[in-house]
Amino acid sequence: MTAIASEKLSKNASLVKDWAKGYESQLNEYSYWIDEVEGTIPPELQGTLFRNGAGSLEVNGQKIGHPFDGDGMICAITFEQGRAHFQNRYVRTEGYLKEQAAGKILYRGFGTQKAGGWLANIFNTNFKNAANTSVIYWGDKLWAMWEGGHPHQLTPETLETIGPDTLDGLLTADQPFSAHPRIIDGRFINFGVKGIASQSLTIFELDEQGNPLKQSSHPLSGFAFLHDMLVTENYCIFVQHPFQVKGLPFLLGFKTIEQCFDFNPEQPTKIILISRHGNHDLEILETDSFFGFHHGNAWEKEGKLYFESVCSDFFPQKQQDELDFEQIDFESFPTGELWEFEVNLSSKKVVHRKVVERGCEFPSVHPQWVGKEHRYVYMSVCDSSDKNGPLQAILKLDKESGEQQIWSVAPRAFPGEPIFVPRPDSTQEDDGWLLSLVFDAATYRSYLAILDAQDLNTVIAKLHLQHHIPHGFHGSWTPNVFRDSSKN
Hints:
single chain, six-stranded antiparallel β-sheet, 5 helices, 42% strand, dioxygenase
C-alpha cells in the first residue's frame, strides 16, 4: 500500500469514527437557557423549533439493530426576545416504559432482534411504536410521529407524554398515521399504510384546527414501503419501489424485517397518483427502477406533474444483526442524489434528470411553496462532490440559475436536516433562516446553527449546547413560543 493510500484510509477511518460518535445515546434530559452563543440571535426569530430522533441506541447497554428502532427523544429550542431555551425529553411510549422497567430489549424492530436467537423471536411480530421519526404542532396538539402507528400527543410546554392519539376516533386501532405529513394551503395531509400481505393506503386531510376534511382508502398491489409523500393542488403522489418481502425468515425468528427486504432492480418503480378531489381516483405509472426515500417538493405546470426526490440505484441493506457504525463502508453505499421527475399526464410518460450530483438528504423548500413551482431547494449534503460519505454540509440550490451555495462544517462536524423559517411578513421565497442542529465530534457537543437562507456564507449565530444530541431525523417550526415557565 502506498503512503498516499494509507493516509487516505486513515482519514476515512477517522471520519467514520467521528460520525459514529453521533450515534452514542443521550440518556439525560435537560432544561436550560443557552448562554454560549456565537453571533446574535435575530430578535424577530420568535417561536419553537421541535426536533425528533432516536435519543437512545441501546436498552441498558444492549444495542439495538437500527436507528429506526431507537426510542424517540424530542428536543425543543424556544426563541424568545433574543434568547434561546433548550429542553429534551423522551417520549414515554408503552414500549419505552416497559423496556426501561425490564432493563432489556423486549421488542423486535426494523433491524432489531431480541436476545436469545430465533427461539426468542419466532412468531413475534409485536413492534414497538418508537415515536421517533418526526414532530409537529398542528391543531393545538404536539405530535411525536412514527409511520407504523398512532402519533403520541405531548404537552408542548414541557414535552411530557399525554399518550397515543386517535384523532378523536378518526384512527382505528390498526390504522397507522405516518410521519411525513405535508401542509399545503392551510391543510394537513397525511397517510397510513396498513397490512403486510394485503396492504391498503389511507389518505387524511385535516383543517387548521385538526378536524378531518377528507379521507380516502385504496388497495395496493405488491409490497409498498411508503415512507414519504408529495402533494400538489390536485394530487397526492407516492413512489412505490420494487420491493418484495420474504417474510418466512422473519416469522421464524431468523432475520429482521430489513434483512427480508428484496429490492429488484429489474422491476419498474411505480408512481402512484391519487386525485385530491372528486372520487379520489388512483392511477399508477411505471418508470425505471430506483430507490427514493425522501422527497422534496411537487408542482403542476402545463398539464404535467413535477417532483423532486433523493434517489439512488438500489436500497442499502444491512445484513448483520448487531449495529456497528464504525464498520460502515460509505463507498459501498449507494449515493443518493437529487432527481427531478416530469410526469406527462396525457402520454403517461415519466422522465427524470439529475439536478444535484452529490450525496444528499432531507430536501426542503419554503413552507409557503409546498405544492407550487419553486426556485430554491435546501438540503444536507456530503462535503465532497466526488465520493460518498456522511452529511457534512448544507446546500442551497437555485434552480433558475443552477448556482449552488454550500456551507460546510467538515472535517469533524455533521449537520442535521435544515429547517426553513420564513422571516415575518416577507414575501421572497428565500427570505428567512435555516436552522440545523449540528453534532461536533471535536467537542462531543452539539450546536444549533442559524444561517441566512439568502446567503449560506452568512452564519448568523451558533447556539452551543452543554452536551451532544445524537443524529436525528425530522423537525418542524412553529411561531408559537412554548416553554415550561416553572423551570429556570
